[in-house]
Design a protein that fits this description.
about 160 residues; mainly alpha; globular
Length: about 160
């Protein structure tokens, strides 16, 4: 499966999933994308202390804070970014995941969960450098696709 086919399949799964399925998928995926080890690579000169605290708290409580609280945390994070375009990839992944999750909580738009799925695939790609022509060739990428498929279409073969 090449990358564009993978994107299309993930979109099809997100659109066709049950409400319970998309919620479970969203919760598991956002939790994976804000895991503490992603934040370890951040240099102290990338975020203010307040932004770092807001990011750490939002990530640790992502499944229990409200959309409004997440909105406020993201504002503190954005206000405290000290670099122009050289943010640590793990921190960038976490911030992006928080922003998509906040939008999903506010608007219940499945497109935000599609974006979370793509960020999750990109996170795996960053670790293993998947082949664009055979994106599922690595065990890690195949496992991530299977995780996405299992959560969004549990009855699929």
């Amino acid at each position: 499966m090449d990358y564009s086919e993978l994107e299309a399949e993930v979109l099809r799964l997100v659109v066709g999933a049950t409400e319970a399925g998309v919620r479970a998928f969203g919760e598991e995926t956002v939790s994976r994308l804000v895991r503490p080890e992603l934040l370890r690579g951040a240099a102290e000169d990338e975020l203010t202390e307040d932004a770092r605290a807001a990011l750490t708290t939002a990530c640790a409580n992502v499944l229990t804070i409200s959309a409004a609280e997440l909105h406020d945390a993201l504002a503190r994070i954005y206000d405290g970014i000290l670099v122009e375009d050289d943010l640590d990839p793990g921190v960038l992944t976490a911030i992006s995941a928080l922003a998509h999750w906040k939008s999903y909580l506010e608007q219940n738009r499945r497109g935000e969960l599609y974006e979370l799925a793509i960020r999750s695939i990109e996170d795996i790609d960053h670790e293993v450098s998947a082949d664009l022509d055979d994106f599922l060739a690595t065990p890690e990428m195949a496992a991530e696709y299977e995780r996405i498929r299992r959560l969004l279409a549990p009855d699929a073969k």
